[in-house]
Design brief:
By secondary structure, the chain is of the alpha/beta class. 50% of the residues lie in helices and 13% in strands.
Length: 244
């Protein structure tokens, strides 16, 4: 665990502040971490495990994964299993037919929205099945800005996911400890830790509306608006919408 401390230092600072600002953790919480195998969820998992050593509340960490089995094949999540062993976290995985349902049965023209909703529901259930009362997701600062802009440009509304969401029907709280962390810091932490990620086999990976918005914001910042994402995030925090 100590090997990762220096690599995680900036992320730990941002995450500790987010947890305090939005009261994300309580004593004796049982926290499930939604792990896709990408850099964001793996860095979140490592940070939450590391912070058990110095945060003023006790909590347990369980990594959980929903495998959509794209192309009818089970994904190899052994790198995640190995990382959990190093971090002292338990691990649960659920294999599903989600990939086949989305792309073959329903043949969705815009698959991302339905896939995300179905995967979230499965994550909620898997968290509860493993005795957890909170589910941590790996959304960082850039994700929040992209979501804000996608809602504005595509739906004509100002909105974003909440820092903390209470799901009354599930009796489960969703938290986002990386919320204040810039994506670049997540990338740096993943590189320093030499994390072995699990590549998504989704047929539309890298060709989504979110990827388009990410590229748009990057292009804007390369021109006149150098700190656009930082400014938009600041405006989001000051807005007070959705628990911000």
């Amino acid at each position: 665990m100590q090997l990762y401390t220096k690599a995680l230092q900036p992320v730990l600072g941002y995450s500790r502040r987010a947890i305090a600002d939005y009261n994300m953790l309580d004593q004796d919480d049982r926290v499930a971490v939604g792990v896709s195998g990408g850099k964001d969820s793996l860095v979140l998992l490592a940070a939450l495990c590391r912070m058990r050593e110095f945060l003023p509340v006790r909590y347990t960490v369980t990594a959980i994964t929903i495998d959509p089995c794209f192309g009818g094949r089970e994904t190899d999540f052994s790198p995640v299993q190995e990382l959990c062993g190093e971090l002292g976290a338990s691990y649960a995985i659920r294999r599903t037919d989600l990939g086949n349902i989305i792309f073959n049965t329903r043949k969705e023209k815009n698959p991302c929205s339905l896939c995300a909703r179905m995967r979230r529901a499965m994550l909620h259930d898997l968290a509860l099945q493993n005795g957890c009362n909170k589910l941590a997701l790996g959304h960082h600062r850039d994700d929040a800005v992209e979501t804000l802009m996608m809602n504005l440009f595509r739906e004509g509304r100002i909105g974003c996911f909440r820092p903390v969401t209470w799901l009354s029907r599930k009796e489960l709280t969703v938290i986002r400890p990386l919320l204040l962390t810039p994506e670049q810091e997540v990338i740096r932490a993943a590189r320093r830790m030499e994390l072995q990620t699990v590549k998504s086999e989704c047929p539309v990976d890298g060709a989504t509306a979110r990827t388009g918005m990410k590229n748009f914001l990057r292009e804007m910042e390369s021109g006149e608006f150098k700190n656009l994402r930082k400014m938009l995030f600041g405006a989001l925090r000051k807005s007070g919408i959705n628990g911000w």
